[in-house]
Structure of [Ribosomal protein bS18]-alanine N-acetyltransferase:
Amino acid sequence: MTIVPMEERHLDDLARLERLCFSRPWSRQALKEELTNPAVCFLVGEEAGEVLGYAGMHCAAGECYVDNVAVFPEARRQGVGRKLMEALLQAAAARGGEFLSLEVRPSNLEALALYRGLGFREVGRRRRFYDDPVEDGLLLTKDLEKEEDPCCS
């Protein structure tokens, strides 16, 4: 698998992936707007031109926040999400991030295991953060060290 910065050629697949994975999916247009946002890093995992998944974050004032991580069902349990998250961690550190934070559903046990395995720790809970179904969001964070940025190298 190759990890590359998100490009316009990825948008149709990513919008489809959003609809598959999230109760409030980002639209193709919302994803497209991130292409020109200097505060973001959206990375796509692909193999032989096929999109397997993606992960994206925003960084500002030393704080980085994961917007989304999604992997197509047929590519799950193959390390795609882990590799994308490792690349985001590297990018966040390279952008001067002091920490990377995210929310996750408590019921998403696979994602929780991934994030905890990468060193994220629970620092809070956002009541009724998710809907369809309504569920709290666990706030996780990981402290960062300086790295080389895969989005801008």
User: Anything to note?
Assistant: The chain is about 25% helix and 35% strand.
